[in-house]
Amino acid sequence: MVLPVDDRRVQVAQKWGFGMAPVKSEVQQQRREAATAVLNFLRNPQHGLSPSLSDDLSVVKGLYSRCHRQDQWDWFTVWQQLGRPGRKRCQQAAQALARLRTAIRDGDDVAVAAQLASLVHAGGQAHLAGFVAGRPSEPQGAGYIYVLSTREQPRLLKIGYTERSVEERVREINRATGVVIPYGVRAVWVVAHARAVETELHARLAPYRVRKDREFFDLDFRDAFALIRDYVYDTRRES
Fold first, then answer.
1. Does residue 151 lie within any of the structural domains?
2. How far is residue 130's CA from residue 123's CA, in Å, rounded to a whole number?
3. Where is the Bacteriophage T5 Orf172 DNA-binding domain (predicted)?
């Protein structure tokens, strides 16, 4: 059945892009309860051990894992709620949570203490406190490299930088004249010297650039992701 024009416009206007799916209220409540339990254990390991802690650790690990992999429809939403941590910190936190769960199961107090320290070092306590309170903290003195596309043209990638929040930049782009299908966020890196990083990345991506005066590139997302990831890691620019 062909939708009336007005209905098609409503569907387009209500679309969320890659990673930006809203979280159902019951799922968000479950995540907040799990984050609260893990945060309590971080703050007071002697008295924060609850029967459901193993499951709670798995839930919170899942939050960090989706932000590190950036491959779920709600990863960007969760990333914002955690305070926009860098991908490396997300990976470190997810690994610490997995090892912490194992250490608790095995009754290894030394390993428990070590993984709690690793989680705090990755910023876990601040992330979870902001997540639970609904007031996430943000990285200081850093910028963002972003990769955007629409769901209809996944190969046409907009790759740029911002020193504001990524969601603010996306809203700005989607409000621009001529944008009909909203852009979604495919990937983000939290970096130092974001403008210089963007300049170097654009030089490396020059063969794929659609127009010299626009930051659009025609290539498979996986190839763009690998190029940016390797550059950011090799130059140690990630915050």
1. yes
2. 11
3. 151-231
pLDDT at 239: 65
Mean pLDDT per segment of 10 residues, for the chain of length 239 residues?
A: 40 56 93 96 85 95 95 91 93 97 94 96 95 85 90 92 91 81 90 93 96 92 94 80
Could you tell me if 35 and 126 lie in one domain?
Answer: yes
Do 76 and 153 fall into the same domain? no
Q: Inter-axis angle of helices 124-133 and 109-121, to 10 degrees?
A: 70
List of residues 6+ apart from 213 with CB closer than 8 A: none
Partners of 147 in beta bridges:
159, 187
For the sheet containing 216-218, what is the strand order?
A: 184-191, 143-149, 156-162, 216-218
Same domain, 124 and 31: yes
Residues 38 and 124 in one domain: yes
pTM for this predicted structure: 0.83
* Residues near 88 by beta carbon (within 8 Å), at least 6 away in sequence: 238
> Domain residues for 37?
25-133
Question: Has residue 32 been placed in a domain?
Answer: yes
User: Quick one: pLDDT at residue 177?
Assistant: 65
Q: For residue 17, what pLDDT is reported?
A: 64
Residue closest to 36 by CA, chosen among 1, 60, 64, 70: 60
Last residue of a domain, one of 107, 133, 159: 133
